[in-house]
Specification:
3-stranded antiparallel beta sheet, alpha+beta
Length: 401
């Protein structure tokens, strides 16, 4: 594909939505220089920040300038503004093209002719572009399909004029380019297959309703899960709030579920395993309002809260034991944490440790220095306790603190 054909294809694609430049393929590898991995797909990631807004346009002059200045760039269209996409994947064991044809046959319907892109992978994968009525929301991929993805909300889809790592270009299917056909509306029979069920029609999940508004009342009525620790001394919401203010809500930025689990597990410990207080504080916690949260689905929050409330060791211990060191982001730090986890004592052995933990549970408002002063004034221990002694005990027994 020469430069003129490339520019023509990219300009035609403005019919599908705003266009943004991506890194291209040079010599079979990504132009950015990063090697291929599970998280890095060559030629399939944005070149500029603000790719959904400031660097996305339908202006032909701007796009022509990009093509001149970036001769190796790939391009993508932003979905959801003008179009939605059925992404039909084709790979061993999966065939989205056949799945869509099967659905149409079962319904006795046909798939309307619409703008269609053939992937450069050479597998026969396709992108079918449709319009959707403005009042239609809450759509998902068609039920009972494995190789059909649905792209709607501000996603980026590679368009013709772009080069796949296989060395083939993305192209419009014969007779189905924007110059040949218009955008078809997603047919009603497909809309019905893709509508998300309303909360009232969903089945229960994990023993709880899948209506998030009813989840907390139902969990409160059922009580804590079997295997929970016996509640300790009740702390005030103010003390729990101060303790939780120091806990990062995204301790693991690349793993939202693990971050949520860590925060919920720490909350269970700080509420001394009082189920009603734990649920009440979690329900109003800011972690549920984060922009990238998975919370809001009972099928996610119900099991998460149950697991967090069980009497268990720190969750990162078992995760570190399962993950090989060479797969860790920081092998040296992982090795150190693994050593600490393997030598951590679960049961206090010395009178000093027992006394410090007992006083903390009785007076959770005391800081490290306050605990040391009270114990030394009482004179019940054989040796003096320093603030550093208390700090080391707190770090060695976080599950009892």
């Amino acid at each position: 594909m020469n430069s003129d054909e490339r520019l023509r294809n990219v300009l035609l694609s403005t019919t599908l939505g705003p266009v943004t430049p991506f890194f291209g393929i040079v010599g079979g590898t990504c132009e950015c220089g990063k090697p291929k991995s599970d998280r890095h797909k060559p030629g399939k990631h944005p070149r500029f920040a603000g790719w959904q807004d400031t660097h996305a346009t339908k202006d032909h002059r701007t796009i022509s300038r990009w093509c001149d200045d970036l001769p190796n760039a790939n391009f993508a269209v932003i979905t959801g503004q003008d179009t939605v996409v059925l992404d039909l994947d084709v790979r061993p064991g999966k065939n989205g093209v056949e799945e869509l044809a099967r659905l149409a046959t079962e319904k006795g319907q046909s798939i309307p002719a619409t703008i269609t892109v053939v992937s450069g992978s050479g597998s026969g994968a396709q992108h079918l572009y449709f319009t959707v009525p403005a009042d239609v929301a809450d759509l998902q991929k068609p039920k009972e399909t494995k190789a059909i993805d649905f792209q709607r909300s501000r996603k980026a889809i590679i368009i013709p004029g772009s080069l796949h790592e296989s060395g083939r270009f993305y192209e419009y299917a014969r007779g189905l380019s924007p110059a040949d056909v218009g955008l078809a509306e997603l047919p009603l029979w497909l809309l019905e297959l893709m509508r998300k069920p309303s909360p009232s029609s969903r089945k229960t999940v994990g023993g709880f309703t899948d209506d998030i508004d009813e989840l907390f009342a139902e969990m409160l009525a059922i009580g804590p899960p079997p295997g929970s620790r016996k509640p300790g001394r009740l702390r005030s919401d103010e003390i729990v709030g101060r303790k939780m203010a120091k806990v990062p809500m995204r301790k693991y930025p690349s793993d939202r579920s693990h971050s949520d689990s860590h925060w919920a597990w720490t909350l269970a410990r700080n509420t001394s395993h009082h189920w009603d207080q734990f649920l009440r504080i979690w329900k109003s916690s800011p972690i549920r309002d984060l922009s990238d949260t998975k919370c809001g689905r009972a099928s996610y929050e119900g099991p998460l809260l149950n697991r967090a409330f069980l009497d268990q060791k720190q969750q990162w211990q078992s995760k570190l034991k399962r993950r090989p060191l060479e797969q860790s982001a920081n092998p040296k730090l992982a090795a150190k944490m693994r050593t600490e986890a393997s030598t951590r004592r679960e049961v206090p052995r010395s009178p000093v440790t027992t006394g410090v933990l007992a006083l903390h549970n009785e007076r959770p408002d005391l800081d490290d220095g306050g605990i040391a002063r009270v114990l030394n004034q009482a004179g019940s221990l054989d040796k003096a306790v320093t603030r550093n002694n208390v700090k080391r005990i707190r770090q060695s027994y976080p599950h009892l603190w």
